[in-house]
Structures are given as C-alpha cells and as structure tokens.
Write a structure and sequence with these properties.
The protein is an alpha/beta fold. Helices cover 39% and strands 20% of the residues. The chain has 2 domains: 4-125, 3-Layer(aba) Sandwich (Rossmann fold), CATH 3.40.50; 135-226, Arc Repressor Mutant, subunit A (Orthogonal Bundle), CATH 1.10.10. The termini are far apart.
Length: 231
C-alpha cells in the first residue's frame, strides 16, 4: 500500500528518520516543522493520504492543528495519527476528541508506527459496504463513496475513523458488536489499545449524530448495536 504521508515534526533529525523509513516502505513523504506550515501543506495538491502529527510544536499545539484541519473542507477527511511524548490517558482522550484517528506515544518503534499507519490507511480506504449505494436509516443518510453523512438536510462532518465506525455499525444493524470486535474491524489492529478507546469514539459519534445518536445502543458488559429498526 502506498500513499503520501505529511510528517509534522519539529525535531528535524526525527523527521528525517521517519521520511527515510516511510519511503523505504514505498510511501511518498512531505515534511512540516510547524503547525502553520502543516495546515498549509495539508491543503496543497496532491493532498496527503495521512498526516503524522506531533502535539508539541513550536508555534501552535498539535491539537489546534487537528481542530483546524477538521474544519477545512479539503482536509477534514484526511486521517491523523498523533505521535507525541505525551502519553497520559487524558492526552489520548483529548487527541481523539479533536479528531485524531490513532495515537502513538513516544518513544515508539518505527516499525510499530508504520504498522499503525498501514492499519489506518487500510481502514480509511476500504469500506465493507457496497460501493455506490447510498444508505438511509430514519433521518440518517450515508453516502459511502463520498464519505458524507447527513441528518435531514444538514451534513455531519465525521473523521475517517468515525465514518468507518458508523458504517461498520450500520452495515451490521441489529447485531451486537463487542468492543474487541470493533477494535479489530474498525481500528484494524490488535495492539495495546484500550477498549475505552471504543467508548470514547462511540460517545463522540453519538454527539455528532445528534438525534440520530440514539440509533446506537449500548449493551452493558457486551458492546454496541445499531438499532435494527427506526421505531
């Protein structure tokens, strides 16, 4: 799998190392050393397929970079992997809240990082739903090809991971999905990612879906299920 990776890292030695290793794996790379430069380069054609984003940048925090990327039409669907020395759970939660698709604390194995990048690209480039078929459920409308979601006439902006989570649950409506199963199928990895990550994303997805958030049911001690019927 190939693609263009935007590396946002102010430590130039580390950035060079990441560029070298990613290019060895067949990826193209683009480097930014500040948050403002990252936002500019993310909007440059060809758009990156993934952004590897450090939180500790010299001008603006990586969380703010992520927020702004999610507010721009051209970049809002680009997956973001945060790589940072901040490794506390609260930092991971904040990262996911602003739209990150994965989070790798430093120091990290370059090999593990590449596996994480592959997994994120795989899940954002492949849908289990039949291409070209627009789905409707109550007030919710999903276009898999365009990666767009509407509630009534209002479009709901989702990250690539949130979109994958929604379409996975919707395509299996009425069937219970355990947290572990969702980690395997949506996140695409079997690593030391807490099942609380699933809870955080489901909560965020429900909030974004507004009144349609009630379509996603919680089965305590089991997992989640997309309601089989609107009534």
């Amino acid at each position: 799998m190939s693609g263009l990776i935007l590396i946002v890292e102010d430590e130039k030695d580390l950035s060079t190392t990441l560029e070298y290793n990613l290019e060895r794996e067949g990826y193209q790379t683009r480097a930014a050393y500040t948050g403002e430069e990252a936002i500019m380069l993310a909007q440059k054609s060809p758009y990156p397929d993934l952004i590897l984003l450090d939180l500790m940048l010299p001008d603006i925090p990586g969380t703010e970079v992520c927020r702004r990327l999610r507010s721009i039409g051209e970049t809002r669907h680009i997956p973001v992997v945060m790589a940072t020395a901040k490794g506390e759970e609260i930092d991971r939660v904040v990262g996911f809240e602003v739209g990150a698709d994965d989070y790798v604390p430093k120091p990290f194995s370059v090999r593990e990082l590449i596996l994480r990048i592959r997994a994120v690209l795989r899940r954002t480039q492949t849908l289990d739903l039949e291409a070209g078929v627009e789905l409707t459920f109550g007030d919710l409308r999903v276009d898999p090809d365009a990666h767009q979601v509407w509630l009534g006439e209002s479009e709901i902006v989702l990250t690539a991971l949130e979109f994958k989570l929604l379409t996975t649950l919707l395509s299996r409506k009425g069937r219970v999905q355990s947290r572990k199963q969702l980690l395997d199928d949506v996140w695409g990895i079997q690593a030391d990612v807490s099942t609380r990550t699933v809870d955080t994303h489901v909560k965020r997805l429900r909030h974004k879906l507004g009144s349609a958030g009630e379509y996603i049911e919680t089965l305590r001690g089991v997992g989640y299920r997309f309601r089989p019927h609107t009534e």
